[in-house]
Design a protein that fits this description.
By secondary structure, this protein is of the alpha+beta class. Strands 7, 8, 9, 10, 11, 13, 14, 15, 16, 17, 18, 19 and 21 form a 13-stranded antiparallel β-sheet that branches.
């Protein structure tokens, strides 16, 4: 490695060290603690936010008398075997949604609950994203799988919300609740309903090792999916390029087709049917994930400066204002999806809600790999075995290409003595050295990138597995020997005194990668060879705290490559002969 490369590496190491040192310290909220909320968002009965007392300046007209808050009344309703709802009259919405076919883990057997720690029910409305969502409604439960909430504001605006529960099972509609919100002016004067918000709810991590990797809010703008991850609130303490911590994020657009919050496997999505949204709002709230996974409610606070190791993201969709003449109703229709973050279901929605999967350019590759795994699972009976079989199939398809690459690397290794002579001869003239090296490659018909081609082809497959294995709900809770969940790290314990998790599959993967690197024919200059030695460490860093299924794929792939090297090592070695230029005869 030349001097410039060494300086660049040193600068990179310093920047990484500064980044790690300056990470914001986020001690968890102690279990049972109840931090004092700010006056602007003090908690009301039922967990909803109440605005602070308003003062009236002398000489101004006092605000209308607020409607009295009724005691909270909750109702448990379900119209199918997929999801059960807990409705509340405080905010007139869905306080919680319990997914009856999904559990947190194979040990606790607790059902997944969406919006379990949300400060407002899904479907609550207000002028501000959080404030004012504690308004009390009266409810009427229908016999046709509906529940209706109604209230009249101090401005004589009657608000009626009608929820129609899903009745189907086995398709995307099993998770879709429809909501009709009707505003009616009961007064005698024209009324302008200023822009308002509808609560999407909050989503928290599913597993204790998720520190915000999968937590985010997404929304659609003219067919393009945007995202705010929970990490966007943390800010950065880096010098010069640092940014302050954020307590809320707002994004405005006149054509928002849908908005939703998601964690690793589940999502809540609100789609306005009649009128597009105009903005999205989100904030983060701390949760005690250790109690969360055990099903015990923890303290939640929006107080600036109160931090937690684990964060949930809370969202709301902004809607445009409208005029209401006396006696005139205005209805807005919504579809509310409370269910799995699953491509095969979301692709059937016609608004592009599948964008909440956030797979990007890796999406097509991930979907092909997932379909292949599901097909193999139905054949072999286990997802771990399916990963192994699929890896072997892919390596067999790439066998001829890998064999040619191995021959190319062997031919390159034969040039090492000549390369050493050139480096010694032109050690003080790097540009001339590069020119002579290129001439040498051309003279002997050697392609310096021939040995890298299989790696370039396998990288998209690796990233496809990376995007798919971490979020594929189909593989969730799939066991394999000591592995309890192929979409989670295979932690068997923690290193004494350090507390670091001990994950077996990534370590085995790194060992097989080092073995494969050792067996690969050495080519190129010594600095490139030394860089190749870092490859196992790079993949160990990527896979260590990620889905164990990814480490399983990499380990099997490495073992297959080792076997291929052993099988092909007795092939006739390539000879080093100069290429005869076109038009010339061999002497």
């Amino acid at each position: 490695m030349d001097r410039t490369g060494k300086v660049a590496v040193a600068i990179l190491i310093i920047l990484i060290a500064l980044c790690l040192y300056n990470q914001p310290k986020t001690p968890p909220v102690p279990p049972g603690a109840s931090p004092s909320p700010t006056p602007a968002v003090a908690a009301a009965p039922g967990g909803q936010a109440t605005p602070p007392p308003q003062t009236v300046e002398p000489g101004t007209v006092p605000a209308p008398t607020p409607v009295p808050v009724l005691p909270e009344k909750t109702e448990e309703l379900s119209a199918n075997k997929a999801v059960a709802f807990t409705f509340t009259n405080h905010g007139g919405g869905i306080a919680r949604a319990t997914l009856l076919n999904h559990i947190t883990d194979s040990e606790s057997k607790k059902n997944i609950v969406l919006n379990e720690y949300g400060p407002a029910p899904v479907g609550a409305t207000s002028d501000q994203p959080v404030e004012g969502m504690d308004d009390s409604y009266t409810s009427t439960t229908g016999t046709d799988g509906t529940i209706t909430y109604e209230r009249t504001t101090a401005d004589q605006i009657q608000i009626t919300k009608k929820y129609t529960l899903p009745t189907s099972v086995g398709d995307v509609n099993q998770y879709i609740t429809t909501l009709d919100i009707t505003f009616k002016n009961l007064g005698t004067q024209n009324h302008f309903q200023k822009p308002w918000f509808i609560a999407i709810g909050a989503t928290a991590p599913v597993h204790k090792n998720d520190y915000g990797t999968y937590i985010g809010m997404d929304w659609d703008v003219k067919g393009s999916t945007k995202e705010t991850g929970v990490s966007a609130f943390a800010g950065s303490h880096m010098p010069i390029i640092g940014s302050p911590e954020k307590f809320e994020i707002t994004n405005a657009s006149p054509d928002i087709g849908w908005a939703g919050v998601h964690n690793q496997y589940f999502a809540t999505i609100i789609t306005p049917v009649s009128t597009p949204g105009t903005q999205v709002w989100s904030d983060r709230i701390p949760v005690d994930i250790l109690q969360h996974t055990a099903g015990v409610q923890s303290a939640v606070s929006r107080t600036p400066g109160v931090s937690s190791q684990w964060w949930a993201i809370n969202g709301a969709l902004g809607m445009p204002g409208f005029d209401l003449a006396p006696g005139t109703p205005h209805t807005e229709k919504f579809k509310i999806y409370l269910g799995t973050r699953e491509y095969n279901l979301l692709k059937h929605l016609d608004g592009g809600q599948v964008g909440i999967m956030q797979t990007g350019w890796r999406g097509p590759i991930s979907r092909v790999l997932l379909k292949a795994l599901i097909w193999l699972h139905n054949w072999v009976g286990g997802y771990a075995v399916a990963i192994i079989v699929l890896t072997i199939i892919l390596k067999l398809l790439l066998w001829p290409l890998q064999n040619r690459a191995t021959q190319s690397m062997k031919k390159m290794s034969l040039l090492n003595p000549k390369m050493a002579e050139l480096r010694e001869k032109y050690k003080d003239a790097p540009e001339r050295l590069n020119q002579e090296v290129i001439k040498l490659y051309r003279a002997y018909g050697v392609n310096p990138f021939g040995g890298c081609l299989p790696m370039f082809i396998q990288l998209p497959i690796f990233f496809g597995f990376y995007a798919m294995l971490g979020t594929a709900i189909e593989l969730r809770n799939s066991r394999f020997f000591w592995v309890h969940d192929l979409t989670q790290p295979d932690t068997i314990g923690h290193i004494p005194f350090l507390g670091w998790p001990l994950n077996i599959l990534p370590l085995c993967m790194a060992a097989t990668s080092a073995w494969m690197t050792f067996m690969t024919p050495k080519s190129g200059d010594p600095s490139q060879q030394r860089m190749m030695l870092f490859t196992p460490l790079i993949f160990l860093f990527i896979c260590y705290n990620y889905a164990s299924g990814l480490a399983l794929y990499m380990m099997v792939s490495n073992l297959f490559s080792v076997v291929q090297f052993i099988v092909t090592k007795n092939q006739v070695p390539p000879t080093l002969e100069k290429v005869i230029p076109p038009g010339k005869k061999k002497k």
